[in-house]
Structures are given as C-alpha cells and as structure tokens.
Design brief:
With 140 residues, the chain is α+β, with helices and mostly antiparallel strands. The chain contains 4 helices and 3 strands; from the N terminus they run ααααβββ. The protein has a 3-stranded antiparallel β-sheet with strand order 1-2-3, covered by helices on one side. Strand 1 and strand 2 form a beta hairpin. Helix 2 packs antiparallel against helix 4. It is rod-shaped.
C-alpha cells in the first residue's frame, strides 16, 4: 500500500470532525432555544404588568361607589395608580381612562442574550379593564 493510500485509509481524525460538527449544531440549537424561551418569558411579563397596572387603576373608583349610585373610575387617580405601578416595575407604558374603561399598553425592548443573529424586538401588551357595577347578590 502506498503512502497516499495509507493516508486516505487513516480515519483517526474522523471522530474529531464529527464531534466539532455535532457539537456546533447542538450549541446553536441550545442558544436559539434559550433566547426563544427568554423572549416568551419577557412577553409574558410585559402582559402581566399591563394586567396588574390595569387592576391597580380600576381600584381607584369614584366616591359614588360607596353610596351605591355609580361605578365610575376616578380618571386622575386611576391613571396615576397605573403609572406608579409601571414605574415600580420599570416597564414603559401608556395609560388612558375613558368612562369606566382603563386601557394600559406596555412595551419593553428585548435583545437576545446568546444568539446575536436573532433580531432584537419590542414586546408590547395591551389590556382593557372595564369597571361594572354589580348589585349585591348578583353575579357579573
């Protein structure tokens, strides 16, 4: 067997090449899975903060609720409560109050932590909370 034939028949580096190829593919897949899960988690958090800011705003009812005459939201206090909640969480958002309806829109920038090839994104969530009067003994 000639020297070239022996070299071509030698498979000593064959395992090393496959290890590098498979290892790189697994690391790539792991990075994509990690960043995708992180993005989904942040999207859930942005939605949760919008919901909770809306809940905080809806608790700021007008004085007519105590007398049982109306179920109106105090628009100034409601917007302030929602903004304070957003400020405490560090998430940007807009709050609007119209009648008995409180709308909170939140947004948060997201960037991948492991895979820079994934595109950064802005995650947004909107929640609308309607305050309705419920008479004693009735279900909404």
């Amino acid at each position: 067997m000639s020297h070239i034939s022996r070299r071509l028949a030698d498979e000593s580096a064959y395992v090393a090449v496959w290890t590098v190829v498979i290892g790189s593919a697994l690391m790539l897949a792991g990075g994509v899975v990690y960043d995708s899960a992180d993005k989904a988690n942040e999207a859930r958090r942005v939605t949760m903060v919008a919901n909770e800011a809306g809940r905080a705003a809806a608790q700021e009812v007008g004085s007519g609720v105590i007398a049982g005459s109306s179920a109106d939201v105090d628009p100034i206090r409601a917007a302030q409560a929602a903004r304070e909640y957003l400020a405490a969480t560090g998430i940007d958002g807009d709050v609007s109050v119209s009648g008995n309806q409180v709308t909170v829109t939140t947004s948060q920038r997201w960037a991948p932590k492991i895979m820079p090839v994934l595109q950064p994104d802005t995650l947004t969530a909107t929640t609308v909370v309607d305050l309705e009067r419920v008479d004693p003994g009735t279900a909404p």
